[in-house]
Automatic annotation (TrEMBL):
It comes from the Bacteria. InterPro entries: Carb_Metab_HTH_regulators, DeoR-like_C, DeoR_HTH, NagB/RpiA_transferase-like, Tscrpt_reg_HTH_DeoR_CS, WH-like_DNA-bd_sf, WH_DNA-bd_sf. Residues 5-60 form the HTH deoR-type domain. This is Lactose phosphotransferase system repressor. The keyword Nucleus does not apply. It comes from Actinomyces naeslundii.
Length: 255
C-alpha cells in the first residue's frame, strides 16, 4: 500500500503503459486504495499531462513533444475518426464558408465534404485534395511552404490567408484538450495558425479522439469555452465528460 499521494501516483505511473489500458480496479488493487481515490489520482496526473484517461482506466501519456509520424497517425483510430468526420460534416450547411485545419481527422472531414456546395480554405494539401476530389466545393489552399512530413501549412503566408478568409465554421484539430489548460499543440507555428482560425470563424467545431482529452501540450491556442461543439466518442472517461460539460462545453458523443 502506498504511504502518500505522491508515492501512490509514482506507483501508478510506473505501472502504466502507453499501449495497454490499466483499469481503475487494477490500479486500486495495486495501491490498496479505493477506486474513487484512483480516479482522483488519474485526474490529477492527466491534468499534468502524464496519463491519458480512457473509459474505465488509463494509459501512460506519450512524452510531450514526441509526435508520431503522420503516416502512423493516419492508421490510428481510423474507425473513430471516420465516425467523428461523418458527424462533423453533418453540422456544416450548404452555402457556408469553412476552414479545415490540418490533421488526419480533418482530412477525413474533408472527404465527407467532397461535392458539397461550400467554400473551403484548407490548411493541408491532403484536406484540399480530398474536398476537391468531387466537383462542387470552391477550394482554396492556404499559401506558403508545405511541411514535408504532414503536408500541412504553418507559415506566415498561411496565417495571412486565414486572416483574410471569413468563415462561418472552422473544423479544428488539436494535440490535447484540458479544462485547465485549454487547447494545446506541440509546435508554436501550429498554435499561431490555429489562433488565426479561431479569430476568423463564427462557429468552431473540434472532432477529437477520447485519448486526447484531459491531456496538455506545449503551446496553447484557445480555451475550451471558445468551442461551439466538441465531438468525441463514448469511450471518453466519464469523469472527463462530466468535467467538460460542467465547464459549459457542448460535447457530442458520436457512436
Amino acid at each position: 500500500m502506498s504511504d502518500s499521494p505522491h508515492e501512490r501516483r509514482r506507483t501508478i505511473l510506473r505501472a502504466l503503459s502507453p499501449t495497454t489500458v490499466h483499469s481503475v480496479q487494477a490500479l486500486s488493487r495495486l495501491t490498496g486504495v479505493s477506486v474513487i481515490t484512483i480516479r482522483r489520482d488519474l485526474t490529477e496526473l492527466a491534468h499534468e499531462g502524464l496519463v491519458t484517461r480512457v473509459h474505465g482506466g488509463a494509459l501512460r501519456a506519450p512524452r510531450r513533444g514526441a509526435a508520431r509520424p503522420a503516416s502512423m497517425r493516419r492508421r490510428q483510430d481510423v474507425e473513430i475518426k471516420r465516425r467523428l468526420a461523418q458527424a462533423t460534416a453533418q453540422l456544416i450547411e450548404d452555402g457556408e464558408a469553412v476552414i479545415i485545419d490540418s490533421g488526419t481527422t480533418c482530412e477525413m472531414v474533408a472527404e465527407q465534404l467532397a461535392g458539397r456546395d461550400i467554400r473551403v480554405l484548407c490548411l493541408s494539401l491532403g484536406a484540399g485534395a480530398a474536398v476537391a476530389s468531387v466537383r462542387g466545393a470552391a477550394v482554396t489552399i492556404a499559401g506558403g511552404p508545405v511541411d514535408p512530413e504532414s503536408l500541412s501549412l504553418f507559415s506566415a503566408e498561411a496565417v495571412d490567408a486565414v486572416r483574410a478568409f471569413r468563415a462561418d465554421v472552422a473544423v479544428l484539430s488539436t494535440c490535447a484538450v484540458s479544462t485547465r489548460e485549454g487547447l494545446t499543440v506541440m509546435e508554436s507555428d501550429d498554435a499561431t495558425v490555429k489562433r488565426a482560425i479561431m479569430a476568423s470563424s463564427t462557429r468552431r467545431i473540434l472532432p477529437t479522439a477520447p485519448s486526447k482529452i484531459t491531456q496538455t501540450n506545449t503551446y496553447r491556442f484557445g480555451r475550451i469555452e471558445d468551442l461551439d461543439a466538441l465531438l468525441t466518442t463514448s469511450q471518453i472517461d466519464p469523469d472527463a465528460l462530466e468535467e467538460l460539460r460542467g465547464a459549459g462545453v457542448d460535447v457530442v458523443l458520436c457512436d
